[in-house]
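Worked Example 4.2. Consider the chain below.
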Amino acid sequence: MLPSLSSFRPFLIAGLLSTSAMAVAAPPSFDVARIAHDIKTLASDEYEGRGPATRAETKTIDYISGQMKAAGLKPAGPKGSWFQDVPLRMSNITGTPTLSMTIGGTSQTLAQGNEVAIRAAETGQSSVKFADLPLVFVGYGVKAPERGWDDFKGVDLKGKIMVVLVNDPDFEGGEGDFGGKLMTYYGRWTYKYEEAARQGAAGVLVVHESEPASYGWATVKNSNTNTMFDIVRADPKAAHTQMEGWVQKDVAARMLAASGVDFEAAKAAARRKDFKPIPLKATMSADYAVKSEIITSHNVAGMITGNKYPDETVIYSAHWDHLGIGLPDAKGDTIYNGAKDNASGTAALLELARAYAKGPKPERTVLFLAVTAEEKGLLGTEYYADNPLRPLGTTAGMINMDGPFGMEKTSNFSISGAAKLDLLTVLTEEAGKMGRHYTPDARPEAGSFYRSDHFPMAKRGVPAISFSAGRELVNGGAERGKALQDAYTRDKYHQPADEYSDDWDKSSWVGDMTLLYNSGRRIADSHVWPNWSADSEFRAARDTTAAQRK
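Applying the procedure from the previous section yields the following structure tokens:
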């Protein structure tokens, strides 16, 4: 759990926390109807789920840049453009993959999207074809020398499929070498894929369970069986195996049972350092074609130039993309509209841009950044962080918005994951003026810190957070807020049902926008430099650029 606010004060920069240190411009009025219109437009069927590298991308980025221009922003891309080109590898499975397993001598066909969710190969190859490759259960698939932890114990995975649990070894018990319920990066499925490649495995299957994954099978299916994107790599096979995907728990349980091991007993064993890989009496075969090509997607960038420190930057960001068109749901709907995720964040970004453009000029330059391919691994922000339009060393901070509005009006706010940094203190103090308080991430085990667009910037030292409106509802408290959030995750998250409705409760929107504006404006109208706590893993990266900040 994140320490109390009072424990931050020893490392905070003088002047940054003082509510009287600077006069924050009075917040503008925010037009709820205009925000709703932006969400409704971007989440309409006409925008086809805003998939990168589709015809919907052109429509989406033209809409965003048009709204930025109308607001009075200046283009912040190269050569006076609104757009930053983001080259990506795009991969699709062509047709229906042929997949099967032989478990304990019995062969069974695997239906894509039902028993397994196999991603298009991101290695650049044109097909995936193998027969009867052995499967090996490797627990949580973690190799962490600094924790004295190695799930592999020297097992040779070449020519074998690695079967791995999602999340950290600490998830079930809530304590141990991996920070308890707070997920480390070792718990993310992205890490499992990366480690499988490092181990030389022929493929990897992550076992799905809703609680440790933090979402149901529908989310897994919809997120993994459509178009895949990755950054353009010199050697993609160094980062990916030929087959990456997920497998249903009951299939994994049958594999283990055929090998004389109970699934729950295997999970319990995997929580210990002395766990050893379990060769399974199961093999897998696959045959499918892959279309792979290099495409260019786009980030959209507009800015208000600072009137005192124009070379210093504050960033507001939101991802414009969603899942596009995919497998039909039970109603036959194939358009993944992404209204809350993240037409709402994009609409908030545009409304903040209008507010800054109409108000007094900030002292620092404020960049409004709508990024691509978040749903494919934070790729738009990853590319920006490697190719920044504004120097990272003089970027004072980044506030990211991904589903930023409360289900209803809340009395609190939160951020994704747990982090100790000055930006959180600024948000906390500004929220306090509005009668709201900070509450740590309600589900630290979900690894949300690694699932939002602030993370690529944080890795490079930039103070960055993803804002959450919280779920302590004024009407019904935290219990009702949790119920509403759980229902959204179960029934709508990464599903065609994430659609805009005029019936949405919009009572939190003005307060959320005001808090976002006041917090960002406070940083923009100053010359102090927020930082991470002294014990943060991101502090060292920030300190390496200290000479750039004067």
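The chain has two domains: 5-52+305-548, 91-292. The first helix runs from residue 32 to 42. Compare this with Example 4.1 before moving on.
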